[in-house]
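Sequence, structure tokens quoted for completeness.
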Amino acid sequence: MNTLQRSKLCLIVLLAALFTGVGCRNSHEAAPSVIWRFAIEETPGSVQDAYAQKFKELIESRTKGEVEVTVYPYGTLGTSDHVTELLAMGTVQFAMASPGHLGKLIPEVQALLLHFLLTDDETINNRALNDPELREFMNQFYEAKGFELLSIYSEGWMVWTTRKPIRSPEDFEGVKIRVMTSPLLLAAYAAYGASPTPLPYGEVYSALQLNMIDAQVNPVFAIEEMSFYEVVDYMIFAKHAPFVSTAVANKEFMESLTAEHRLIVLETIEELRPYILDIQLQFNRERLDRIRERKPTLKIISELTPEERSVFRARSLEVRQTYIDMTGESGKQTLAAIDATLERIAQNN
């Protein structure tokens, strides 16, 4: 069986699981008129799960039971790549699509993976990611693939968890660090001198435990919920990049909605913008406290010096050329749009 056949078989199995899982309700309950499916890339209790569950609550309330939203956590429908395929097919109507995975389909969105592209000021970054003009610019790339970009948001700073302190690119030499399956992330950590290793999210803990990798990178809430801190010695806040997610819908599905239902979706997404920012700040703060309580021997480097960050920033600049080589003129325009948005917001801050 070749790769294409295996992929098709896997999708068939996922579709069967999806549809047979629908409708498991009490026989006395009235069935909704329609079911909308929302797939996320994280586990229950995560930032993405909080977003999807709030979306479900608001949609079901505002449609007065006409619509039921079913949320599918990480792994339920296969990998992130499978979810993207199901979203493109319209079998799943909504999904979280992080640039690390979606970038294989939409190369331009990988700009949001570039280190030191955004500032070290979370307020400015969050206002930029929420900027309607930037979202409209980015949406053209989503629409070309049959999607509609609903929201871009940060889930918090990406944090390195390692077995040794990392304060310079020299410290990264020989370190096998797990990254998402993105050529740009591979290039980013290779530029630091590390050995980037792509692995599925669900395999990271065991890989750290068995010394198959030496480090990984994720927001604090993910490090806590997946217990990555148990099998490392250091957490390092370099503030090199936030973890950015995008909430996406199937374009044909959105165009098929009644005017009323489309308005409800868009109003709900607007309400979720400040909500998810508060949630991620809360989750990351509370989960860091939990980590400290559960493993007091863990050494936390809460920040690098400006001089240390500048060395990493200098190394990261070569990866921007890698991004432009991958995306061409559209990539140049994307970088310019992000830079212009950040500059405008910083001036008005």
